[in-house]
Amino acid sequence: MPRLSQKYYGLERRKFLQMMATVTTLPSLSHLSASCVLGSAKFSDNPFTLGVASGDPDPHGVVIWTKLAPQPLEGPTLRQESYEVKWEVSTDESFSNVVQRGSTFAVPQLGHSVHVEVEGLEAERWYFYRFHTGSEVSPVGRTRTTPERHVMPERLKFAFTSCQHWESGFFNGYPHMQQDDHDLVVHLGDYIYEYAGIDNRVRKHLGPEITSLDDYRLRYSQYRTDIGLQEMHRVAPWLVTWDDHEFDNNYANLVSEEDGISPETFLARRINAYQAYYEFMPLRRRSLPLGPDMKLYRACHFGRLAKFHVLDTRQYRTDQPNGDHQKPMEGKVFDQNATMLGTKQEYWLMRHLNASHSTWNVLAQQVMMAPLNRGTPEKPLYSMDQWPGYEVSRRRLLKYMHERRVPNPVVLTGDIHLNWVNDLQLDFQDPDSPIVGTELVGTAMSSGGNGGNVIPEYERAASQNRFVQWYNSNRGYVSCELTPSVWTTRFRITPFVDRPDSPVETAATYVIENGVPGAKTV
């Protein structure tokens, strides 16, 4: 597929400044105004229709989030003024012991979203929180802080998921995820899809393909009206990162998959997409977008038990070699300058892996790292959008983890709408090459429809790639329970998504022992 030849990282300075002058006429998020505050506002409807959320926890704090949206599916309905929002955090659900409180502003520049970075909390405990504006009170959220970095907790239970296409079906995994009572949720991207609404789908997107800021806001609002998703945000903190559909399918840095898209148009759309993502996610101020740039990669410690390295494999990568489809591993795949993470993020990751004192080192990222041959032994084919399209980058990272003896690397992956368990080898061409770590690939929450079907391409891939331990085509999520000695993974599947209220089953359980790379079935 034809691609744009010019990229953000390859533009001459003069051309780049001209482009930025075109797109940065949009309001700057760094100069938010709290003027004309409506402290005793009255609302025609409940302003907390999109619920509450929390995220990015640390030992003494967490981000709590809400958004004022009385009619969330009708576009902008609030006055373009700021609203005072009060918040409180308590050790109990009845709020008889409030330990932190304060007030902030829901400003129109951020779509009247609220991000409060609560501090001064006790480590490793659950809290409850809520918001007030005018005479209205939000639902009560539940969140938790992490253990102190020097502490070795007995247990961590978290879930991860990705790829929740509204039109493909209902998010049936979330009610079961809530019942499983996790300490943390990790979302690996494709939280929304940008496509236009199509008739005769399970549920229909509102409007055409999204490009403007209001378009993106409306799409997130539609997704957040899903009660299961909204409730899962309410009861546990989240770590989030994006993939491509939060902006545009299969984009790479500033390269569109579509032919003929001007850099100015692309940048303006990216500004809109990134701002809307920030507005709807429980993220700290460090992730506030700056024009078309938004820093999402970051670390989250759970004492000495686990360290999450949250990665961004979209914003900084070079273009996919020879398009973004399945190709042989040759030519540009071995470009020494090609990168999946970008130089700065890659060095950041290596530095954090090298300095880690955690038992489990988790890479929360988007696309499959193992080089899955989806062709045949005679004619091997690999996805150029995944890590095999950036082979030098992939090999460099695995070599680094092996040589530095990074403790227990576990890679969490989404994107592909299937479950996989992969051994990560130092050299995948050598059957006797040492195993460096494990890749756990989680299926989609809904994308792709019901699932559970036989897919010849992936049946063949599972049988001919010796590093594959298991494969499954159902929808659902992945539940992980960590102790200092063992990591237990349960692949939780929902047999259908074309209607609500699916049951849940555990399709497979795998364990990883501390100090023994590779997963084993139970």
Structural notes for this entry:
It contains eight helices and 25 strands. It is an alpha+beta fold. It has two domains: 37-144, Immunoglobulin-like, CATH 2.60.40.380; 156-521, Alkaline phosphatase D (PhoD) (Purple Acid Phosphatase, chain A, domain 2), CATH 3.60.21.70. A hairpin with a 3-residue loop joins strand 13 (298-302) and strand 14. Helix 2 (173-179) packs parallel to helix 4 (227-235) and helix 3 (213-224) runs parallel beside helix 5 (263-280). It is globular and about 70 Å long.
For the structure shown, list the relevant keywords.
522 residues, alpha+beta, Purple Acid Phosphatase, chain A, domain 2, 2 domains, 8 helices, disordered N terminus
Would you kindly provide a brief summary of this structure?
The chain is α+β, with helices and mostly antiparallel strands and 522 residues long.
Which fold name corresponds to the CATH topology of the largest domain? Purple Acid Phosphatase, chain A, domain 2
Largest sheet: 7 strands, mixed
> What is the CATH superfamily of the largest domain?
Alkaline phosphatase D (PhoD)
CATH class identity of the largest domain = Alpha Beta
Count of distinct structural domains: 2
State the distance separating the first and last CA atoms: 44 Å
Strand content: 25-35%
Shape: globular
Question: Which range best describes the helical content: under 10%, 10-25%, 25-40%, 40-55%, 55-70% or over 70%?
Answer: 10-25%
Low-confidence stretches: 1-10, 25-30
The secondary-structure class comes to: alpha+beta
Count of DSSP H/I helices: 8
CATH architect. name of the largest domain: 4-Layer Sandwich
**Mean pLDDT metric:** 93
Rounded to the nearest angstrom, the radius of gyration is: 22 Å
Q: How many strands in all?
A: 25
> What is the topology, as strand order, of the major beta sheet?
12-11-10-22-23-24-25
